[in-house]
Amino acid sequence: MNQDFSGLLNGLKQLAQTGLGEQIGRGIERETLRIQPNGQLAKTPHPRQRLGSNLTNPLITTDYAENLLEFVTPVERNHEQLMNALKDIHRYTADAIGDELLWPMSMPCFVGDDDDIPLATYGQSNVGMMKHIYRRGLKARYGSTMQIIAGIHYNFSLPESFWPQWQQILGNEQPLQEFVSEQYMHIIRNFYRYGWVIPYWFGASPALCQSFIQDRQSSLEFQSLGQGSLYLPYATSLRMSDLGYTSSAHSNLQISYNSLKEYVCSVRKATQTPSQTFAKLGVKVDGEYRQLNSNILQIENELYAPIRAKRVTKSGQTPSQALFEKGIEYIEVRSLDLNPFVPQGVASFQLQFIDSLLLWCLMMPSAPMAEGELQQCRDNLNQVALKGRDPSLKLHINGQDRLVSDWLKEINQAMGEVASVLGQQFTDAVERVTQRPPLSEQLLSQLVGENEDNSVLALELAKNHKLALQEHPLSFWSKDKLDEIVAQSIDEQKAIEQQDNLSLDDYIQDYFARASVPLA
After folding, report:
1. Which of 390, 208, 380 is nearest to 306 (CA)?
2. DSSP-based three-state secondary structure for 207
3. How many CB atoms lie within 10 A of CB 28?
4. Which positions ≥6 away from 117 have C-beta within 8 Å?
5. Coil vs helix vs strand at 141
6. Contacts for 276 with CB less than 8 Å, ≥ 6 apart
7. Residue 307 lies in a domain
8. Which domain holds residue 368?
9. Is residue 484 part of a domain?
10. Three-state SS annotation for 238-249
11. Is the pTM of this model over 0.90?
12. Beta-carbon contacts of residue 374 (< 8 Å; ≥ 6 apart)
């Protein structure tokens, strides 16, 4: 696949002798709906007294809705420690939500209408109200049902010590910060080209509750299952398809991944370009905000993408400002469905597979994206999401049309070589993934074989997962420490609310004034 691959692989072997596999920085963000014991959406507000402030608790927050939890691990370099942290957060939450359960699927349970999905609230502070208004905008623009699709976000960063050595191997003489950002963009471009392998292997949303479709127009030829489920025979991840969390309003955005500067400028342009469609919704109607603004993107986080360049931001700083000033710190992989077969939503072997994929993307040539190539990559991802297991499916990559099976054969072999450099557990992970049926096939064979509703299986799994979580002994934190984090978060929210010295209007205006300061 690449004549330079073997040479770079040898270079990676030298760096891996110091234990590269245990030096990678990793973090997980897992979304999950709270549901009632009968499988319906939980109607209770976020349990702040038990789980803390969703504005300030660093481990447990809410995403779009009050009943859409998001769990955030600290950055860890050891896979076992990372999974222990994630399991501890789940265990603590399972105890805190009483008889409620955590929905194990990416696609939501039965939803009657948008009013069943209460927007997340974050208190009365300006920052909390701005987060809430942003969600009002999402509801007005796209509807609520799409926003409660859940997934796993995986944060990945190579150690600082890796980069000077890698730069030497490549014979590169750029300033180090520029080099690091360029290499992360290199990974991102190749991820767009080849990252469809994640929904292919780990997509676990080939079926959904028919309530998700409701009044939507769809040309997809769904088949019926059980009493109220729909599925596509070769689908892998309806979540990642144009039916799911992606937005047609964003499909024509010209985001450039050819350099950090081009990326930042193109994202910024989208946040500052008015949309005629969104302007019709109004921004402040009858004295109440309906959305933060009427631009194509209200804020940068509204850009839906399977992978993002990231850097931790300072207070009042936008993501693009942080990236432009200090460069890329890590990348966020966002194309991973919830694994419904494990209580914590993702298994360690999946992350080890992704580590190998990202390092392979680093070693493969990554030419600048030609005009139209990004859209071709998006089309490939959508095709894999909708019919990835169709034996006749072909993908167009780097000027070649080839069967998915042919692409996979080549990619799997190269990934196996990368994994062998990282260590036995990575080799085992790649073999485990590539030598078994994809998750979507495992799930669909069970559903179709028993003509079982997606929601019936999900509820059964949710109950079993809760029992398993409650048997999990806390190992990363103690209960006292988690209680302390909860109490501290409540105090922190109160302090933030007391410190506000601007009106909400002035706060929002000030934020966007700072966000529009030209990048030096």
Report:
1. 380
2. strand
3. 24
4. 41, 64, 65, 67, 111, 144, 145, 147, 148
5. helix
6. none
7. yes
8. 5-515
9. yes
10. HHHCCCCCCCHH
11. yes
12. 192, 255, 257
Query: How many domains are there within the chain?
Result: 1
Q: Count CB atoms within 10 A of the CB of residue 274.
A: 11
Q: Are 107 and 208 in contact (CB under 8 A)?
A: yes
Q: Which residues pair with 101 in a beta bridge?
A: 35
* Cα 303-24-412 angle, rounded to 5 deg: 80
The β-bridge relationship of strands 151-157 and 207-209 is unpaired
Instruction: Reduce the DSSP state of residue 402 to 3 states and report it.
Output: strand
Nearest-angstrom CA–CA distance, 418 and 364: 11
Radius of gyration for the alpha carbons in the chain, expressed in angstroms and rounded: 22
Opening angle at CA 292, ends 291 and 293, nearest 5: 95
Q: Are 260 and 189 in contact, with CB atoms under 8 Å apart?
A: no
**Closest residue by Cα to residue 398 from 375, 369, 418:** 369
| Contact present, 203 and 214 (Cβ < 8 Å) | no
Please state the length of the chain: 520
Per the domain annotation, does 71 fall within a domain? yes
Q: E-assigned strands of 63-150? A: 68-72, 101-102
Place of tokens 């789980």: 51
Residue 520 maps to a domain: no
CA distance 452 to 227: 8
- CATH code, domain carrying 45: 3.30.590.20
pLDDT digits (tens), the chain, 520 positions = 444 888 899 999 988 888 899 999 999 999 999 999 999 999 999 999 999 999 999 999 999 999 999 999 999 999 999 999 999 999 999 999 999 999 999 999 999 888 889 999 999 999 999 999 999 999 999 999 999 999 999 999 999 999 999 999 999 999 999 999 999 999 999 999 999 999 999 999 999 999 998 767 678 999 999 999 999 999 999 999 988 655 555 666 789 999 999 999 999 999 999 999 999 999 999 999 999 999 999 999 999 999 999 999 987 788 999 999 999 999 999 999 999 999 999 999 999 999 999 999 999 999 999 999 999 999 999 999 999 999 999 999 999 999 999 999 999 999 999 999 999 999 999 999 999 999 999 999 999 999 999 999 999 999 999 999 999 999 999 999 999 999 999 999 999 999 999 999 999 999 999 888 888 6
- C-alpha to C-alpha distance for 498 and 18, rounded to whole angstroms: 49
Residues 6+ apart with CB under 8 A from 138: 64, 144, 147, 298, 302
